[in-house]
């Protein structure tokens, strides 16, 4: 699970994404499973309606809780 620690993915997310993408696209899906899942997490972090997906898949719960825009706005308000 070295990739899951480096990419901040839960080990279960890596295993599930590997099996799902392999089932859909075969061996090619197995090679791109982790990059696709990482891209999905990054995309979901930017939209409030689907941020729960990023929180569910990401290992770093605090970082997934707020988008970069919300973090920047909070910093401006406190300054």
From TrEMBL:
Family matches, as InterPro entries: AI-2E-like (IPR002549)
Keywords, alphabetical: Membrane, Transmembrane, Transmembrane helix
Signal peptide: none
Subcellular location: Membrane
Gene Ontology CC annotation, any one: membrane
UniProt main location, coarse: membrane
Tagged with keyword Transmembrane helix: yes
Membrane-crossing residue ranges in chain numbering: 20-43
Membrane topology: Multi-pass membrane protein
Family: Belongs to the autoinducer-2 exporter (AI-2E) (TC 2.A.86) family.
UniProt name for this protein: AI-2E family transporter
Organism field: Methylocystis rosea
């Amino acid at each position: 699970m070295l990739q899951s620690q480096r990419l901040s993915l839960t080990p279960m997310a890596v295993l599930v994404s590997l099996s799902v993408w392999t089932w859909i696209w075969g061996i090619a899906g197995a090679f791109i499973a982790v990059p696709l899942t990482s891209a999905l997490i990054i995309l979901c972090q930017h939209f409030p309606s689907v941020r729960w997906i990023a929180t569910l898949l990401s290992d770093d719960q605090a970082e997934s809780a707020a988008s970069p825009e919300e973090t920047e706005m909070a910093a401006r308000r406190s300054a």
